[in-house]
Design a protein that fits this description.
By secondary structure, the chain is an alpha/beta fold. It contains 24 helices and 26 strands. Strands 14-13-23-22-21-15-20-19-16-18-17 form an 11-stranded mixed beta sheet. Strands 5-4-3-2-1-10-11-12 form an 8-stranded mixed beta sheet, with helices on both faces.
């Protein structure tokens, strides 16, 4: 459920000549029965409103006096959020025979044609007040007080994001709150200026138009508005049409390493921030550390906690990056599993976070974990999974994917792999050759063919795998394994720092106290000849490469470059074996 609340004007919208008919009241009750909230936004004073509409308690909150007062019908409490009206202004208007006149907790209201007299009195007194029109009504309020400011306060009380509210109105004073909400609708009797700006132009007038809107929301939810309104721009296809990710779709971004997946994800976060959508990024490799518009928790040597993450994600207006590079694989999976339940509950209640991005998704959403991911992620539809290995994702999760975006030279091959994982017929890409700035866009369940979409680069620099190789957990597949003489050992080093420490222990002769405690493996040469060698000669090329990596960690140089120097170095002297050739990870024998 995307739209969580309806904010409706009273006079001219749900009410005709001041009264709400039975069909409109029944539709409002049906809307609330879906679990959504109702907010009435009106220029009327509370006393007048309670007299006019006996069923006011169907609304969760009432924003009255054009944004100055919030009323809770359930307990009949009022909260005034604007200054009181100017007594001097009221006196002057009465002196000038401005009638009728009504004075509320903050509002002063009258009717045309008294607007000239009201303006003259405000100028004479030097007041910072504003005049707001509602067809024939003339309202005086403190500066900055309007229906939008009042609705913001009401939504803060209900803890609902403005994007997840649909609004309906008819007159001039509805402009501000219609523009604030995620979707704006205008009844048929609305002023032309209101209808021109509305996302939905209803065919029914007054209450009939509201009934029509409620039926649409219950039936279609977020699909009542075009993707350009709430969607996140992917790029432009070859026909020149813009392609969007709809607000409740589940996305898989796949492609080979260094094909641009994480850079594109960075671009998506920029576009989310532009539209003021809140997002949360699960970052296992430090790719998003320093991401603009976001708060980052967890660093190379500091593990994030569930409590810290949930506290921040619950804060309105906060975008969050959860850096799990300091955690091993099993701890990453446990952290993720502990987050998704509370996040799903938060999203169902508030609409936030609007998007969840899971980088290296195969690490936490693998079929090997045995978790029912489809069930656990049910409450998080707007999720983006980024992976180099889609075939390792849980099959029940893959079957929920709405959009597949594939990067790299082997994009079409990756599409075929995904189709196989989804148990779908082989995809026929015909003869599609991708340009350097193009990706494959595929909607598996739509029946539409593959398309090429041109994408842009993010405005901010992308940090690739910060900390992953130095202090993170690269996984069993990419780890170093210390076998020892005659393959007597099988010690895994999940990162370069652990490898460096292991090598220091193994290459330090017994009795040398400068390097701390040491372990001498079987067959280690502790002869005086070896002991007397200068330390620099005693270290292997592998050890020196690892020390360079440790130095790079302090200087800010990319760890990936250090890893490249390490793996592509003199393999004969370092005795490294790549998994690509042996299937057993990187094998280091000191």
């Amino acid at each position: 459920m995307y739209f969580l609340a309806l904010a409706a004007d009273y006079d001219g919208t749900i009410a005709d000549h001041g009264f709400v008919n039975a069909a409109t009241a029944e539709a409002l009750k049906r809307f609330k029965g879906t679990g959504r909230r109702l907010i009435l936004v009106t220029g009327r004073e509370i006393a007048d409103l309670t007299h006019a509409f006996a069923e006011l308690k169907i609304f969760d909150l009432v924003v009255a006096e054009n944004g100055a007062v919030i009323y809770e019908p359930a307990n009949e409490s009022e909260r005034v959020i604007a200054p009181a009206p100017s007594a001097r202004l009221v006196e002057k208007l009465m002196e000038r025979k401005v009638e009728p006149i009504s004075v509320g907790r903050s509002i002063i209201a009258t009717w045309a044609p008294h607007q000239a007299a009201v303006l003259s009195a405000i100028q004479e007194l030097g007041l910072e007040s504003q005049i707001i029109f509602n067809k024939g009504a003339v309202m005086v309020l403190p500066a900055g007080v309007n229906k939008a400011s009042g609705l913001k306060a009401a939504l803060s009380m209900l803890d609902i994001a403005v994007h997840n509210v649909i609004a309906v109105g008819d007159a001039e004073n509805d402009h501000t709150f219609l523009g604030l909400c995620g979707c704006a609708a205008a009844v048929a009797n609305a002023l032309p200026a209101i209808r021109d700006e509305a996302d939905i132009k209803l065919s029914g007038d007054h209450g009939a138009g509201v009934v029509e809107l409620i039926q649409k929301v219950i039936r279609e939810d977020a699909r009542i508005i075009p993707p350009s309104r709430h969607g996140i721009l992917v790029g432009t296809d070859r026909s020149g049409q813009k392609v969007y990710l709809e607000p409740d779709c589940r996305v898989l971004i796949a492609g080979e390493s260094e094909s641009g997946k994480s850079m594109f994800a960075t671009l998506l976060t920029e576009r989310m921030a532009e539209k003021q959508f809140e997002f949360c990024v699960i970052d296992p490799e430090g790719d998003y550390e320093g991401l603009r518009h976001a708060v980052c928790i967890g660093r190379d040597c500091t593990s994030p906690t569930t409590e810290e993450a949930l506290t921040l994600v619950c804060e309105t207006g906060v975008n969050l990056v959860i850096n799990t590079v300091a955690l091993n694989m099993s701890d990453r999976q446990r952290l993720f599993a502990s987050l998704i339940g509370p996040m799903a509950e938060l999203r169902a209640r508030t609409g936030r976070p609007h998007w969840l991005l899971v980088d290296e998704a195969h690490q936490v959403l693998s079929a090997a974990t045995g978790q029912p991911w489809h069930h656990l992620l049910k409450g998080l539809p707007a999720t983006i999974f980024i992976t180099v290995s889609p075939e390792f994702l849980a099959a029940d999760l893959l079957r929920t994917i709405d959009v597949v975006l594939v990067f790299g030279r082997a994009a079409l091959k990756a599409v075929a792999t995904i189709a196989k994982a989804l148990n779908m017929p082989a995809v026929s890409p015909d003869t599609m050759t991708l340009a350097d700035d193009e990706i494959v866009f595929w909607s598996p369940r739509s029946g539409q063919p593959l398309s090429a979409v041109r994408v842009e680069a993010p405005r901010q620099d992308h940090k690739r795998h910060t900390g992953k190789y130095a202090v993170g957990d690269v996984g069993e597949r990419e780890s170093f394994y210390f076998r020892g003489p005659r393959n007597a050992l099988n010690l895994r080093a999940p990162n370069l720092l652990r490898s460096w420490r292991s090598l220091r222990r193994w290459t330090t002769p017994r009795g040398n106290t400068t390097c701390g405690p040491s372990i001498t493996p079987p067959g280690f040469d502790t002869s005086s000849k070896t002991k007397n060698l200068p330390p620099r000669q005693r270290k292997s090329k592998l050890t020196r490469a690892l020390i360079l990596v440790k130095a790079a960690r302090g200087s800010g140089r990319p760890y990936s470059n250090a890893m490249l120097r390490l793996v592509k170095g003199d393999r004969s002297s370092t005795r490294l074996r790549s998994r690509n050739s042996t299937g057993r990870g990187l094998d280091a024998r000191p």
